Amino acid sequence: MNFKFSQENYVQMKATVEKIKSFLGSKKILWLILGIIIAVGIFLRTYHFHDWLRFNMDQGRDAVLISNVVDGSTPIPLIGPKAGGTEFKLGPMPYYFQIISAKLFGNFPDKMAYPDLISSILCIPLLFFFLQKYFTGSLSIALTGLFSLSFYAVLYSRFAWNPNSTPFWTILGLYGIHNIISQKNPHKIFWATITGIAIGVGVQLHTTLLLFFPIITILIFGFLLYQKINLLKYFFIILVISLFLNIPQFINEYKTNGQNIQRFFTGVQMKQDPTKTFIDKTLRNTSCWAGSNVVILSGYELFNSCQINSETDFFDITIFALGVIFLFGGTYLGIRYLKQEQDLDKKYFLAIIFLYIGIAYLTYLPLAYSIDMRFFLMFIFFPLILLGFWTKFLMEKIPKNIAHLSLIPIILLVASNLFFIKNSFADFADFEEGRESKNVLSNVMLKEIECVSNFIIENSSAEKELYISGNKQYLRKSINSINFFVSRSNLKLIVFDESKETKEDAFYLRSSNKRKQILKESNTPIRYDTCGRMLIYRSIQQQ
């Protein structure tokens, strides 16, 4: 078969290539890709959502409160959950979201987790529009795709916890502020309202946002006032709305003579380590930021407590070094782009980002020995922006005909996140079947708790007070969650220490790995059930 490649064939082929390029660069394909990215993100966040829902002691404690409010046996709270490691309590907004969700969808733990799930899904398109404030559409879509598949983002979307929705409300707040000061946006009252809502909600989700949001808002509008740019009325709109959303806290402070705000200052003092020098705290803080970049972008967690020590292997040290280079190099590129930028809207965007991150870095400095990876949820967008700077830099340096090669790091990071998500889901499947080699239990699943609770309820006879003992770690992680279900059957579960006292007719909770040993060594017949990694049992003859 003879084939002659003529000039006419070449022209036709070139025209076809140009049509393909034009199609790929069109807005239609951009929206199509974004739709696919959102669909994949929804799948990863909802896959086995009920059965694999993390339902630890904090979630169990909150679920009991929410359930009682929904049932009408407890009044609506004026304040929210405790901030980690302190007596200070956050605002009640996380509880309000869960109460609304429970009333709409059902008074069950997975339904109470819907607000965090929904905010994580909504964060995907929001991030795309946020990134488009500076980056091109194609780069924004690539970075959004990476976020949709981020193991870190997926992990924190699959259970109820007050910090879990901070990515959405943080990005919405910063996005709103930019739209207010943007010369191109005419809908400033609308965005002032949205920003007021975002800040009013955000300050109730995490203690740090109680500092970050007010500080950045005051600094930005103070700067605008100094520059004689009259946008002060929008500041007051934000202030009024955010204060209105926090009225329950003000009522509580009035009723308790400011008790909670006193606990806030006590908690801040407790979180600081006076034995550490400024250099120690700077190194530790910077390590945290570098490590958070690594886990958010790749899914690989170098550490949780931000510490590289002498026992750390060579691979982790190498990854950490790359994380430090990425952080400092990306920050340098971003500041350089900020100085070079001629478009005032883009310049404002970069300025807002670096101001927010600068405030956060300085705030975390005295707290460096009290923070871990969960403290970086509200900065989940920052490593993506740094990656955007690096990609933009590579695109500028690589010849145009092979510029697409600059996207290879993003593709590799996508593959890395998919690897960790796959492994995580495989672990959940193993936990569900009780296939766990260790007795260590870091998180319990809703399906396990439901199974244990059902066994206790079905084997409670006519008793109202029940005793339970067993593996201390298992009980600590799960007792609040078990109580959510057994209390709804008007049963009271009392934990006792079997090493110090003996209780007749008691339930015992242990690792399912111990089943054969317990069945073999038991002096009396027992009734039991294997619930994933947990074994719950009770003597038959005592009933």
What would you note in describing this structure?
This protein has two domains: 14-420, no CATH class; 446-539, D-Maltodextrin-Binding Protein, domain 2 (3-Layer(aba) Sandwich), CATH 3.40.190. The chain contains 22 helices and five strands. The protein has helices at 7-24, 27-46, 57-71, 93-105, 109-112, 114-131, 137-148, 151-155, 166-181, 188-202, 209-226, 232-244, 247-255, 259-270, 278-298, 314-340, 344-364, 382-397, 408-432, 446-458, 472-486, 515-521; strands spanning 465-470, 492-495, 507-511, 526-531, 534-539. Strand 4 (526-531) and strand 5 (534-539) form a beta hairpin. The protein is globular and about 85 Å long. The protein starts with 6 loop residues before the first helix and ends with a strand. The relative contact order is 0.10.
Helix content: 55-70%
Number of domains: 2
The whole-angstrom Rg is 27 Å
Oligomer: single chain
- Please provide the ordered H/E string of secondary-structure elements: HHHHHHHHHHHHHHHHHHHHEHEEHEE
Unreliable residue runs:
none
In the sheet with the most strands, the strands line up as: 2-1-3-5-4
Number of helices: 22
User: Kindly state the mean pLDDT as a whole number?
Assistant: 90
Strand content: under 5%
What coarse outline follows from CA principal-axis ratios?
globular
Largest sheet: 5 strands, mixed
Provide the structure class. mainly alpha
DSSP strand tally: 5
